[in-house]
Design a protein that fits this description.
By secondary structure, this protein is an alpha/beta fold. Helices cover about 55% and strands about 5% of the residues.
Length: about 350
């Protein structure tokens, strides 16, 4: 009797599981077909998809791919980290991409920057959209060349990018990364990508929210700047300003030279330059402005030599590479790294000049 009861319970559990899965998939397919999506609505040209302040969620990639692939206009795609993303400014219009949208009305401006993004990410994005009618503007960050790639186990966003762009990982990159992406990561990625729920989260919101709530949702989820004016939010990565200045003297404005032979990020920078050259792509490569007041306090003479080396590598490949001439005043910074609205405007003006040349 006991065995019969156990068998019945297992069979019942399997039926419940199958019914739940079928119901789940059916509902998602119905939502996908029947409801509009925020992705399909006309929003601002700066289209950054994010549900983690300024990192990509796995489900965002399909939306990004669809928008850019279906967009028949000429495009400017920005690739960078939190500096290019525009963390801390009040709204999209005060970010670099917002200003570029005004400067280039005949272009769609896509900001695919995310916090902590690194040279490997840029290489993948350029691979993905190399066939499109695109001007790439790629912002590198000094500190990624002064440190190693960090722990991929701790960088969830990086692992999502690795699994999404697995097709572009050659043997050289695989060797550099080791076992950073596990079979479990790939399996999870496959399931999430192929079950409709990922693409339908915004459609469900669209069905139940009023217009004001939809506007807030787009601002929070798609533009990823919900705490723009909140000092407590900014201070989560600037715990102590003086302590961070000391830290940045060593990391953000390093005295040591970048080592292309041993540093993964610098190696990926060179690999990306070679790829751009080989494909004949239209790319502007640049460094962000640097805080002149802080750099003078750091007294790191090697920093200027690093900038020259950075630009020199691009020049060798015949690629435009620019950085701000001289030191940028501290008044253009929100903190020791990120620019305020006025600083972003200057940055956009520089990019505008380079593109039009």
């Amino acid at each position: 009797m006991f065995e019969k009861s156990l068998t019945f319970s297992r069979a019942r559990i399997l039926r419940i599981f199958a019914f739940t899965a079928l119901f789940f998939v059916t509902i998602n397919i119905a939502v996908s077909l029947a409801l509009p999506s925020f992705v399909d609505l006309k929003r601002a040209s700066e289209q950054l998809l994010s549900d983690n302040v300024c990192n990509f969620a796995l489900e965002d990639f399909a939306d990004i791919n669809r928008m850019i692939t279906n967009d028949k206009q000429k495009k400017i795609i920005l690739l960078g980290d939190s500096v290019f993303f525009g963390i801390g400014v009040e709204n999209e219009s005060e970010s670099v991409s917002g200003y570029l949208h005004e400067m280039f009305p005949d272009y769609s401006v896509y900001n695919l920057s995310s916090c902590g993004s690194k040279p490997l990410d840029y290489y993948f994005w350029i691979n993905r959209f190399k066939e499109e009618d695109v001007i790439f503007v790629v912002q590198y960050n000094y500190k990624w060349f002064a440190i190693d790639n960090g722990s991929l186990e701790e960088r969830v966003s990086q692992k999502k990018i690795l699994t999404e762009f697995d097709e572009y990982m050659d043997e050289e990159i695989q060797k550099w990364l080791g076992n950073a992406v596990t079979i479990g990561d790939k399996a999870s990625h496959f399931l999430t990508k192929n079950i409709p729920v990922a693409a339908n989260r915004t459609k469900l919101f669209a069905a139940i929210l009023d217009e004001k709530s939809k506007e807030d949702f787009v601002g929070h989820v798609f533009f990823g700047k919900p705490e723009a004016q909140n000092m407590a939010y900014k201070q989560q990565y600037w715990k102590d300003k003086e302590e961070m200045k000391s830290y940045n003297c060593k990391i953000y404005y390093p005295a040591q030279l970048w080592d292309a032979e041993r540093n993964f990020n610098f190696a990926m920078y060179i690999k990306t330059l070679e790829f751009i050259q080989g494909e004949g792509l239209n790319v502007v490569v640049l460094m962000p402005p640097y805080n002149g007041t802080l750099l003078k306090k750091c007294m790191n003479a090697g920093f200027e030599e690093n900038i020259s080396r950075f630009a020199g590598k691009a020049q060798e490949k015949g690629i435009k590479s620019v950085s701000f001439a001289g030191l940028v005043d501290e008044k253009y910074f929100l903190d020791d790294m990120h620019l305020n609205a006025e600083g972003n405007k200057q940055f956009a003006d520089l990019i505008n000049k380079e593109i039009k040349q």
